[in-house]
Specification:
This is Pre-C2HC domain-containing protein. With about 325 residues, this protein is α+β, with helices and mostly antiparallel strands. About 40% of the residues lie in helices and about 10% in strands.
């Protein structure tokens, strides 16, 4: 992420952008409960006419000591090429104190945090556009031990789709693979491989209808869109959704969901087989243990008889 400037109060959000309502200081202090290496705080001049002077580092250090009582926990201090002053520390409290700085050597400054080394960025696919990002952030935080700092939605400009866009190969116009793995070169208008401008009538290579292969009125496009909706609603992979949905051309979402619940549960089958194997091993071990006990009893009886005979002879000899 870019450097995030210090903010006070609530941060507004909309359906395409969400930012945590917690202040940067509060987010930094929460790092005390997490595992991280260092926090980098960026200080830059607030006014372009008054830049932070590149003076002797000891003078800057002396000025910092006046305002930060945990200055001993600052592990590094340096100027960037853009004239920004960057502090590094592994102490969240020290970082929060640096964020509260308003001046360095009488120069008004603004502060921010570089989140790159203390946060993770990842993509979540196929989130319906009608789902509020604030609700998604709450769900992520409630189900995971993490704090959501920022969410951005990547959608096509002016798109009103409730679900993700259908992905189509731009070489053969099928929906089951990506463009980069396709070596065909078919015209989307007439469905024929030719050079130059298309002169033939429109004919869809997917359904043979009188339209281009990229048209949204194509039944195949509608079919794929419904598969994608089914995938999003039931949290399936695209392969699972396509297999379940296309089992019958008249399958509805509720029927497909029933098929999904009655489909063989691989994990359950594996667990049953493991339990069966463990039971067999346990039974064999019990049988072997019983056999060893019987052998031990017989050996003990034989030894007792031998000892009894030896004791009798020894008594007779003594008498």
């Amino acid at each position: 992420m870019d450097d995030v400037q210090r903010c006070n109060g609530m941060i507004s959000s909309n359906n395409n952008y969400f930012k945590s309502s917690k202040s940067i200081n509060e987010l930094v202090l929460r790092l005390g409960q997490k595992s991280f290496e260092e926090i980098h705080i960026v200080c830059q001049h607030r006014d372009a006419k008054h830049k932070i002077p590149r003076s002797n580092p000891f003078l800057i250090q002396a000025d910092i000591k006046k305002h930060i009582n945990r200055h001993d926990n600052i592990t590094n201090m340096k100027f960037s090429r853009q004239g920004k002053l960057i502090f590094s520390t592994a102490d969240p409290v020290c970082a929060a104190q640096i964020l509260n700085l308003e001046k360095i050597q009488e120069t008004p400054i603004s502060t921010g945090v570089t989140f790159e080394n203390i946060t993770e960025r990842f993509l979540i696919f196929d989130i319906p556009t009608n789902q509020q990002l604030s609700e998604l952030a709450d769900e992520i935080m409630n189900k995971n031990d993490m704090e959501v700092v920022e969410l951005r939605r990547f959608v096509k400009l002016n798109s009103t789709q409730e679900f993700s866009r259908v992905r189509q190969c731009l070489h053969c116009y099928e929906f089951t693979h990506a463009t980069r793995v396709c070596d065909k070169n078919i015209c989307p208008l007439c469905g024929v491989n030719h050079e130059g401008q298309c002169q033939g009538p429109e004919k869809c290579i997917l359904c043979n209808g009188p339209h281009s292969a990229t048209s949204k009125i194509c039944p195949r496009h509608t079919h794929e869109q419904k598969i994608l909706e089914f995938k999003c609603r039931n949290h399936l992979t695209i392969g699972e959704a396509r297999r379940l949905y296309t089992q019958s051309s008249k399958t509805h979402y509720s029927d497909a969901a029933k098929i999904n619940t009655t489909a063989p549960n691989i994990e359950e089958i594996v667990n049953q087989r493991v339990e069966s194997i463990v039971q067999n091993i346990t039974t064999k071990m019990e049988q072997q243990t019983t056999l060893l006990i019987e052998i031990f009893k017989k050996q003990s009886k034989i030894l007792c008889n031998i000892w009894s005979q030896y004791s009798t002879k020894l008594t007779l000899k003594i008498t």
